[in-house]
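Appendix B: a complete holo record

For completeness, this appendix reproduces one full record from the ligand-bound portion of the collection. The bound molecule is pyridoxal-5'-phosphate. The inputs are the chain sequence and the ligand SMILES; the output is the full three-dimensional arrangement of the complex, encoded as structure tokens. No fields have been trimmed.
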Amino acid sequence: MQKEINVTQPFLPPLEEFIPYLEQIWKNKWLTNNGQLHQQLERELADYLGVKYISLFSNGTLALISALQALNIHGEVITTPFSFVATSHSLWWNKIQPVFIDIEPEYLSLDPAKIEAAITPQTTAIMPVHVYGNPCQVEKINRIAKKHGLKVIYDAAHAFGVKKDGVSILNQGDLSVLSFHATKVFSTIEGGAIICHSAEMKHHIDNLKNFGFRGETVVEEPGINAKLNEVQAAYGLLQLKYVDAFIESRKEITLLYRELLKDIKGISYMEDMKGVTHGYSYFPILVDEDEYGISRDQLYEKLKTFGINGRRYFYPLISNFSPYSQLPSASKENLLIANRAANQILCLPIYVDLSLDEVKTISSIIKK
Ligand SMILES: *Cc1c(COP(=O)(O)O)cnc(C)c1O
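The structure of the chain with pyridoxal-5'-phosphate bound, as generated:
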């Protein structure tokens, strides 16, 4: 049988290395609710990422939903349609109207030049996404937000370990949200986090994810249950020991793809941004049918016949899904670049155990 190569595959550390963590949990008899390993993971992650305050969550989507709650965001939020659907869903779950604006063509993130025209008296925040871990144009976004009194919440699900001029990109905006889903560079199987800038805000967020409790007998607001448990925290602590090696091997794969795919007419990819330390979360290419000869979907199907499963990520655009497609801002004319990108994008396999020979095979099929 032909070996299947998927777009991603989790790296499971040696099982015997996980056992001591489990023994510690069994000994502590503390399974969830801010346990010892949970606290340790928060400390180690804050240290590793270069951020002050981090609050762990059971997944990235609940972290996004809670981040909006923590800042009391309502009305309308300006966001990008070129993201995973959870970005807009987090607004929907807070009864906030997403207002989509187009992306910029180079790194496919929210185009700051389109923000101001979309602001109305109902606008309370901007929710950009560091797509594929390439930082958004944060200075411009911050300047506009400040001028109009808007909050900024970054969906930073792809931006684990990403730094700009030596500083974590997660320090940008009012809050940043990570996902630790099994498909991400760093994983707690399911999990996520909110990064904030003050002890008071962390305290508030910690309470929000625990039903809104302040101490034993006081509930100050309708919180949610979005806690990360001790087994997941243990998995994260073990993953963290390997994460530099993960990123290094992803970088090697990225550089080889770039080398092998350059000069193919109609195939383009993104280069590293200047001054940015990347996490190499994804390896997306754009397929220009007119120049390449076949469409993205045809290339996607062709790779499948070789057992290679790319992922059309992000396709369809969020704004084309039925819960959102009737919004005025979801019209295709409003989102020309995003619609084009969604039709051209293909993420190629990238994961720790992907061999360089496999990268060569994939690249040669694309070269045809
Ligand atoms: C993965 C992801 C999410 C959702 O995170 P979960 O942990 O799966 O809930 C949100 N936004 C983006 C951009 C993502 O890639």
